UniProtKB/TrEMBL annotation, chains A, B:
SUPFAM superfamilies: FAD-binding/transporter-associated domain-like (SSF56176), FAD-linked oxidases, C-terminal domain (SSF55103). Belongs to the FAD-binding oxidoreductase/transferase type 4 family. Keywords: FAD, Flavoprotein, Transferase. The keyword Protease does not apply. InterPro entries: Alkyl-DHAP_Synthase, FAD-bd_oxidored_4_C, FAD-bd_PCMH, FAD-bd_PCMH-like_sf, FAD-bd_PCMH_sub2, FAD-linked_Oxase-like_C, Oxid_FAD_bind_N. Signal peptide: none annotated. The active site is at 410 (proton donor/acceptor). Its cofactor is FAD. FAD binds at residues 113-119, 243-249. It comes from Nonomuraea endophytica. GO terms for biological process: lipid biosynthetic process. Residues 81-259 form the FAD-binding PCMH-type domain. Its EC number is 2.5.1.26. This is Alkyldihydroxyacetonephosphate synthase.
Amino acid sequence: MSRWAWGVEPDLDELRGIARMISGSDDFEEPVPFDRVRLPPPRLAVPEAWKEFAIGEARARAERTYGQAYRDLIRAYRGDFACAPDLVALPRTETEVEQVLEWATAQQVAVVPRGGGTSVVGGVEARFDGPAICLDLSRMDRVVEVDQVSRAALVQAGASGPALNAQLPGDLQLRFFPQSYEFSTLGGWIATRAGGHYASLHTHIDDLVESVRAITPAGVWESRRLPGSGAGPSPDRMLLGSEGTLGVITRAWVRLQRRPAHKLSASVRFASWERAVAAVRELSQSGLHPSNCRLLDAAEAQLAAGGDGEHAVLILGFESADHPVDAAMARALEIAGGEVGGVRQDKEWKGTFTRMPYFRNAFPGMGKVVETFETAVTWDRFPALHAAVMGAVDATCRFAFVYPDGPAPYYTVSLPAERGAEVAQWDALKARVSRILLDHGATITHHHAVGRDHRPYYDEQRPEPFALALRAAKDALDPAGVLNPGVLV
Amino acid sequence: MSRWAWGVEPDLDELRGIARMISGSDDFEEPVPFDRVRLPPPRLAVPEAWKEFAIGEARARAERTYGQAYRDLIRAYRGDFACAPDLVALPRTETEVEQVLEWATAQQVAVVPRGGGTSVVGGVEARFDGPAICLDLSRMDRVVEVDQVSRAALVQAGASGPALNAQLPGDLQLRFFPQSYEFSTLGGWIATRAGGHYASLHTHIDDLVESVRAITPAGVWESRRLPGSGAGPSPDRMLLGSEGTLGVITRAWVRLQRRPAHKLSASVRFASWERAVAAVRELSQSGLHPSNCRLLDAAEAQLAAGGDGEHAVLILGFESADHPVDAAMARALEIAGGEVGGVRQDKEWKGTFTRMPYFRNAFPGMGKVVETFETAVTWDRFPALHAAVMGAVDATCRFAFVYPDGPAPYYTVSLPAERGAEVAQWDALKARVSRILLDHGATITHHHAVGRDHRPYYDEQRPEPFALALRAAKDALDPAGVLNPGVLV
């Protein structure tokens, strides 16, 4: 992975080309080369017992300093690695994870668990005082066991999307495709309650998890494999979204699906945004459960789906491994109304979707600040929220996920950069839109997690007694407070 | 409500008739009349400030001593009210709930929250030393607000199934029909993670809850109304299943459905139990999401559905407010194979289903001990579990809920009573079958909750660090430990 970009180190000429295509200008600033970055000397030496799985080398530290927020990209681009971890542990076994937690607890050194490092909320950055260990789970990436009868697999937390699916047998898949699919890991998905492939029904990884195993400073947390249970509050639901603060997720049983044999896709155009929203609301309440139900406003449709800049576009998809989906699609199109742009057997939108982050690599150089705001809100409150966001900033909007009681709108905002002041610009933008989300009854995050960037708004959103309970739980499991300090509690 | 029976005080002649019908005998023991029951004098006087909403009267205390386990019935039948609450608070407002919690915390007096009192796991019984207040929520039973756009309603926790639905407008319903529907309440459903009407997909109340409000000794816990969120571990999921130990749930926003316009029901007979199980497994993994998918073994089918005692019977149902369900039913029947017994427009199985508990009222008198064991287990482990249960006790089996990764089997066991020793018989039966469930990787409860009866098995089932976290959360919210002592933590 590049120390600053999405994916491996990008070719600068290619980025210049993308920048020119987008901006029409040759103005392009190059990233600070690695030999000139500001990386503080490590405050920790690799303990003797960890020699086989830990490193303190500068490049390894730099590559694991940040996540993938624009705020991260621009700092790395400019060579600022002030909050680099002091050493990187790459455990191969749970025993090695335990060794790290024991040592860190005894030494009171912070541990930041890391999967694919694709956090866009400052969730994997050592943004605190004192030394830090990056606990990189990427070597624990195996599918350990598959239960073909129950359609479930036991998978190590460090498995990325492609690694996980490649190890599954026959036509079984997880069918969970977040935009970060190429790099993000199962452990990261669980820790952050990631949103996946399905626009409705099983939207979050939460629903695909059968049991979770985590190493905490207070011992091993492993829930029973169960299809369903009513025995007390769900242990899994406490780890889901815990963002590395309660324990280090090392493996999980996940529910698998057969590869779909029946797939249909269609796009519908709407001259009126309000009509499009009403159609999607009715669809969300129909019980048809489309696997894809992405509504793009006219500007977003122009950028992402070849739209004319005047029509909103709804991309509908149904899939099944078991039965034809023609009747479901026909009924969905009937509900949608609008102008149907043809029904296809399949549509390879996922390729484009997962390539999008690569384009962003050109933004720091060309002087473009970008941020996305993803949220969820009930239908009754959506119009006021939407008007407020669109009135405050220059944004495009899409619905990434829809529920019977509300959509999950996703706003993309970009600004011309004031070179050198991008972090301040980004912070101001984040504060401005986040305030609007909170004031309109929306959530500070639907699937990007809280991290350090959303923390003030999260604190405001959650019930105060729940915060007390979570803090107490954290203190019981991690009495030294070494796990991902500053996140959630 | 009767002090011992399901529903209002039953007519004894009617019970004699039922007993004779079932046992063929006239042997019938009458319940100990109220003037001869053993009810200890109250250890608490009603505080002056609670005069308008609390009572210490003997009958009110007796009626709220137990839940509805057979273990409860038989004790009440025999006049044993040793663990009656010392006073009954019937708050009309959240302020009155707060008053009770404040006083109880200051005085270190236990509070047992109660909805419809239909717990079958000892969840609402003051089975501990020291005085107890029964906090009966039944007066807080209003639908406060309806959002027709997002299809959601704000409902007070004490609303029973019928009360809740009666207050909803037009064709909107909660569509959540547990067997206890007639008496159990929204707050109870949430506190115990009740299982409802849908055999697949939205099986538990968990999925129908948009936000929850609870009064805790540490303050008001209220989550935001959100269709979905990824902001940290879900606060609602911590209250779901908390069984009155973390706070008193006072109201919740729940998701509503339109009344189904399209309904189909069919029954399928199988000569082989194994083939029936395999068919249901394939159905559960088909993505068809039947609303009803009840598999009854041959003995259960004979008792409950007019079966011939040799064939297992699968009752399949599909419903939709939006679209015809014929294609789904046709495909389901194709998957099922077996011998199809006719497809009907509708089937009023729910009437019978919710009348079943009334029959049980005859058991204490006729000398019959009964208990049900409901669990969930992955498909790969089901055959061994089933063989072990059926080998150990004389049981009938049905699947009440099915998931892609496993069924939720429900076993009914009955024994001839050794009169006077029924509680010991029941306890021995509970221990024997619970041990089998735990040893075979199943859950101690799928939808009946933990209460006091399942507690030892629950402790064994849950991950130890989770128990630490839950205990810490409890201590933070309820430092005096007054909320439902002995349950969960």
